[in-house]
Design brief:
Elements (H helix, E strand, L loop, with lengths): L1 H23 L21 H9 L3 H12 L3 E5 L2 E6 L2 H9 L5 E2 L4 H7 L9 H15 L1 H4 L3 H15 L5 E3 H18 L5 H18 L9 H28 L11 H7 L11 H32 L1 H16 L9 H5 L2 H13 L5 E6 L3 E3 L2 E3 L4 E5 H5 L41 H18 E5 L6 E3 L3 E3 L4 E6 L2 H9 L1
Parallel strand pairs: 2-8
Antiparallel strand pairs: 1-2, 3-5, 4-12, 5-8, 6-7, 9-12, 10-11
Helix pairs in contact: 5-10, 5-11, 8-9, 8-18, 9-13, 10-11, 11-12, 13-16, 13-18, 14-16, 14-18
The structure holds protoporphyrin IX containing FE and 2-acetamido-2-deoxy-beta-D-glucopyranose.
The site of 2-acetamido-2-deoxy-beta-D-glucopyranose has 6 residues, from helix 14.
Length: 491
């Protein structure tokens, strides 16, 4: 295994980094660059950052850079000279900057898997248009109607994978759940063979996106590319079926609508389709990639927290039981129920602050930029770390302390651009309401149906770059008997 990694890295250097190195070699940068070192040609400090990431110490790694060089500094990361920024003002600059100055361009390897028309890659008018199409379904007013559907998926999940077991691996199970919720709600693909066929392809694609981009047989990256070529025809079929169903007016009932149907039916003012099929495909893919691991990471950390923290656990249980009491046995959750889960969402927000799923965001300078008295040359990367802001003692006092009261209405709310787990500005996560719905509904069902304890005391995780628990977060679960629940409720 180690050897394989070594060989992969060597190949990576040969095939990817050195060609880029020769492109950059001899290039003169303007005066006024931030302090710091670009380190070894091209490799720079990439391995240091990856190591810090793995150990979940990126905020410390960034802090060291700041101590050494000052608040704005440069490094060489993942093949590009990079300026590292942090703090609310820098976050505001990066998140709200004009797309002609800073773009969201990802390395070409990523668009090979996610497609060149995916929203992350788009800028300016195209980004606005595709984003409007996506949010036409993902916005709260629309999603609200689907709480019962998400809840049904959760109940089925618990019935299939949790009830009747004594021990479960939480993280892989919850990934199955978030995959299924996206399939059902966003793709309109119900349980069955078709869904099962999609799963491995998506998994390979996600692994490919996160892998070192060497396209040789048997590399993770190569597997990701192959998965895309297999997935695209399946998605083309799905789009065709939905278009036929629309034409036959089979879907007169808006309750049967899903994101794909919505993307097919959305039209410009002049009546032409707002998105091409190619755009629909790339954005279906990106929604799955962006929405599946992130939400499952949050839920997994919450399951761990509730096993470890008695005071948070009992406060959540009492909030959730209050809601359970108001429902008939077996009645589905509705939007109104979620609005009552205020404490639970504060706990989730605090979890997103401390264990933020997306720890790094990269942008690319499209022109020389002056920022904070320094020059960021055209073509350089700009790196923002949300963990860095989330762990800043000046913004979140005692930052390592788990304290959901930070998000209380009447408490000193975090200032703008300091809680950035979902990003901010025109590219802020459009899946936030869905993530919230899934998280709250799952917490409700979990704490009202089970109690659990960790099997490995304080099981650790590494970031690859998403947090992964060493044993998938092993817990022992005990079902709460319905009679026990109702006797508790009647107390
Ligand atoms: C707890 C769960 C989630 C977290 C923490 C999260 C976090 C983020 C962050 C930080 C960004 C902005 C990245 C940047 O600006 O560099 C983002 C963008 C995005 N997220 Fe999420 N996300 C979550 C769930 C979801 C879900 C469920 C979906 C699917 C509907 C989704 C779809 C997207 C998309 C499409 C973008 C790109 C938006 C754009 O470029 O305009 N996310 N997310
Ligand atoms: C549990 O959460 C409470 C409330 O946020 C916090 O004060 C306490 O330090 C936490 N306890 C542990 C063991 O993490």
């Amino acid at each position: 295994m180690e050897l394989q990694i070594l060989i992969t890295l060597l190949l990576f250097l040969l095939l990817v980094l050195f060609p880029i190195f020769f492109l950059f070699r001899g290039k003169k940068y303007p005066d006024g660059l931030p302090p710091g070192s670009l380190g070894l040609p091209l490799i720079g400090q990439s391995f240091d950052l990856l190591k810090a990431l793995k150990a979940d110490k990126v905020d410390k790694w960034f802090q060291e850079g700041i101590t050494k060089h000052g608040p704005i500094w440069k490094a060489s990361l993942f093949g590009y000279p990079t300026v590292v920024l942090h703090g609310p003002a820098a976050n505001k600059f990066i998140y709200t900057c004009d797309g002609n100055i800073l773009t969201n361009t990802q390395p070409p390897s990523i668009s090979r898997i996610l497609g060149s028309k995916n929203i992350i890659e788009l800028a300016g008018h195209d980004h606005k248009r595709v984003r409007a199409a996506l949010t036409s379904f993902l916005k709260l007013e629309v999603l609200k109607q689907y709480v019962a559907k998400v809840d049904e998926e959760i109940q089925h999940h618990l019935q299939t994978h949790w009830h009747g077991r004594h021990e479960v691996q939480v993280q892989p199970l919850i990934k199955t759940l978030t995959f299924n919720v996206i399939c059902s709600l966003l793709f309109g693909i119900e349980r069955g063979l078709k869904r099962d066929k999609l799963l491995p392809h998506f998994q390979h694609m996600i692994e490919g996106v996160l892998a070192i981009p060497i396209n040789l047989p048997f590399t993770q990256f190569n597997r990701g590319i192959i998965a895309r070529t297999k997935l695209v025809p399946m998605l083309i079929d799905i789009i065709r079926e939905k278009r036929e169903a629309l034409q036959e007016q089979k879907q007169a009932n808006p309750r049967d609508k899903d994101l794909i149907t919505s993307l097919i039916s959305i039209h410009d003012d002049d009546g032409s389709p707002m998105m091409s099929d190619e755009e629909i495909i790339d954005n279906i893919i990106v929604v799955m990639v962006a929405g599946y691991d992130t939400t499952s990471v949050l839920l997994t950390f919450l399951v761990k927290l509730l096993a470890n923290n008695e005071s948070v656990y009992s406060a959540i249980v009492s909030e959730q039981q209050e809601i359970a009491k108001s429902k008939a046995l077996g009645e589905a959750l509705a939007w109104e129920d979620l609005t009552k889960m205020k404490y639970s969402w504060r706990v989730a927000s605090e979890m997103l602050r401390i264990n933020t799923p997306v720890a790094l965001s990269f942008r690319r300078a499209m022109q020389d930029i002056e920022y904070g008295g320094f020059i960021i040359p055209k073509g350089w990367q700009v790196l923002l770390s949300s963990s860095m802001t989330h762990m800043n003692n000046d913004i979140f006092q005692n930052p390592t302390l788990f304290d959901p009261t930070r998000f209380e209405k009447h408490s000193l709310q975090p200032p703008p651009f300091s809680f950035v787990a979902f990003g901010a500005g025109p590219r802020m996560c459009p899946g936030i309401e869905l993530a919230k719905m899934e998280t709250l509904a799952m917490i409700h069902r979990l704490v009202t149906q089970f109690t659990w304890e960790l099997l490995k005391e304080d099981e650790c995780f590494v970031r690859n770059p998403m947090p992964e628990f060493n044993q998938g977060l092993l817990v022992r679960i005990t079902p709460i008997k319905a009679t026990f629940m109702s006797s508790k409720v009647s107390l």
